[in-house]
Amino acid sequence: MSERSETAQGQSDATSRCRQVAAAMVAPGKGILAADESIGTMNKRLDKVGAAQTEENRRDYRELLVSTAGLSDGISGVILCDETLRQRFADGRGFPEALCELGLLPGIKVDTGSKPCPGLPGEQVTEGLDNLPARLAEYAQMGAAFAKWRAVYTITSDLPTETGIRANAHALARYAAACQEAGIVPIVEPEVMMDGDHSIEKDAEVTSAVSAAVLAELADFGVDFAGIVLKPNMVIEGTDHAERSSPKQVAEATAAGLRALPDDLAGVAFLSGGQSPERATANLAAMQAHQTRWPLTFSFGRALVDPALQAWRGDSGKLSAAQDALAQRVAANAAAVRGERTDQELHPV
Ligand code: 13P
Hints:
Pathway: Carbohydrate degradation; glycolysis; D-glyceraldehyde 3-phosphate and glycerone phosphate from D-glucose: step 4/4. The chain has one domain (3-63, 76-340): Aldolase class I (TIM Barrel, Alpha-Beta Barrel), CATH 3.20.20.70. Helices cover 46% and strands 13% of the residues. It has 12 helices and 10 strands. It has an 8-stranded parallel beta sheet. β9 (267-270), α10 and β10 form a beta-alpha-beta unit. α7 (162-181) packs across α8 (200-220), α9 crosses α10 and α10 runs antiparallel to α11. The termini are far apart. Residues 343-349 have low confidence and may be disordered. Bound molecules: 1,3-dihydroxyacetonephosphate. 1,3-dihydroxyacetonephosphate (13P) binds next to α11.
């Protein structure tokens, strides 16, 4: 085969692999567990529950989460950070290998965090593009099936600006294209933050503008929509807003914003964004009343793991209580995406 046709063959193999993995990530009744907090963020969370901020505790906690019995019944894959991907289970298996044996796809957060954006006071841009193809090649070799990159947008009276929206959308698209070339499915995560007192209508407006910019950049970079999972925020009022939207209102506003998404997208997996676990589940359940062209599932972090972290607090004697707490959240969210929630469960917000 000529060099050019070998490259083309390699690319088409990568494309079909990405499509297959992306479909598995949003398989019916399953969501994605986000356990990819950076070392700094994880340390803050450990400190909050009175656990020591050590590498060992970060490892123990992640092993506790992913080895919860039956996790793969409601979870397709787990997003890890670089530190965890390189760590080992207590029995010596590397995390990626152990996850595969547990029926879970290993994922890796590849952005290096959001930083103040030069030229745009008050706005942030996510970094991590330098050397990304080489890092992705290493992660692929280590067994990562998918990746994550999170862009953050804060709402104030004059933010985000169009330029801020575009800068983050551009980075997300370059990241997504690099992932697909490496045969790794990109989770594309543009997050409009809940911080602030904005209304649900304002959130809808900003989320739509962000989504349009991200879709345009993804298309410009030739990203294959069937080989990505979009991870947006739900459309919801700001944390300090006077009125709280109902699950029905959140679902309607969110579904309306999704209409512009392309038909061939693999799926949508929402972040929880600081909602309580119960509220995030109720909103996700209400979303299922809307007929969409792609699965609407969850890729929650805090809304899945907070009760487990609270139960564990670094105490090995509380391991099974912590795993029960995680199992309960996973079961509730899996039931939500399967449309199996009862009315009673829909209202505890
Ligand atoms: P939350 O569900 O806690 O918002 O986290 C999801 C995530 O992956 C953030 O990048």
